[in-house]
Design goal:
Udp N-acetylglucosamine O-acyltransferase, Domain 2; ten-stranded mixed sheet
Length: 256
């Protein structure tokens, strides 16, 4: 159902069983997948592709141009997967040429009110962004990460799988997988044990991750030495391998 007071461009590709509320504006080169609900007063500009069964609440803005002074009008896209929720006043920008030309969001993510996702960010699956969490450009957020309210992530940072940030966290460096981070600037505060238990991690796996955390942050080892020890631990506990690979990958350096 498209409300008669919605403005939908003739070139927009609207799937089956899509609801679009009053005063919503859908621009050209927008694709909306089957079963998606778009509330009132939403603006979606293209090129934007939205998958199936998403819920987009009032006053959200998706697919606007990058808030980047280097942006020069080049073609860039926003790609959104399935079953995501965008609550009130969420803003998501398209990409830029300097970041690969695309902002991408996976499946089953929950974005609470006033969340901002800047140009060229890459969001995986099953993440939660609490109210007013904000990403600068080129940030990568991996599966099952949870960002507390008013979290701010600096440009080009990585946020690892299963990690969690506390309210008001500000980070200028990467947050490793499984880690709880808090403060301005962010510091590590152990492993996200509660989240891991909820997701079915075994006691042995959680214990191994605690040992890996101690190697990384409590042992006094240099980073390279700690990574070598963590890689050894990963031979017996595959969960630890994710952390080792994250530490080996190029980034902005990890929070310490």
């Amino acid at each position: 159902m498209i409300h008669p007071q919605a403005l939908v461009d003739a070139s927009a590709d609207i799937g089956r069983d899509v609801d679009i509320g009053p005063f919503t504006v859908i621009g050209p080169e927008v694709e909306i997948g089957d079963g998606t609900w778009v509330g009132p007063h939403v603006v979606i500009n293209g090129p934007t592709r939205i998958g199936r069964q998403n819920r987009i609440y009032q006053f959200a803005s998706l697919g606007e141009i990058a808030q980047d002074l280097k942006y020069a009008g080049e073609r860039a896209v926003l790609e959104i997967g399935d079953r995501n929720v965008f609550r009130e006043y969420c803003t998501v920008s398209r990409g830029t040429a300097g970041g690969g030309g695309a902002t991408r969001i996976g499946d089953d993510n929950f974005f609470m009110a006033y969340v901002h996702i800047a140009h060229d960010c890459q969001i995986a699956h099953h993440t939660v962004f609490a109210n007013c969490a904000s990403l600068a450009g080129h940030v990568r957020v991996e599966n099952y990460a949870v960002l507390g309210g008013f979290t701010g992530i600096h440009q080009f940072c990585r946020v690892g799988e299963h990690c969690m940030t506390g309210i008001g966290t500000v980070t200028f460096q990467d947050v490793p997988p499984y880690v709880v981070a808090a403060g301005n600037t962010a510091k590590p505060y152990g492993i996200n044990v509660t989240g891991l238990k909820r997701r079915g991690f075994s006691s042995a796996g959680i214990g191994a991750l605690k040992r890996a955390y101690k190697l990384l942050y409590k042992s006094g080892l240099r980073l390279e030495e700690a990574i070598v020890e963590i890689e050894g631990l990963a031979h017996e506990h595959p969960e630890v391998g994710l952390l080792a690979r994250f530490l080996r990958a190029e980034g902005r350096g990890i929070i310490r």
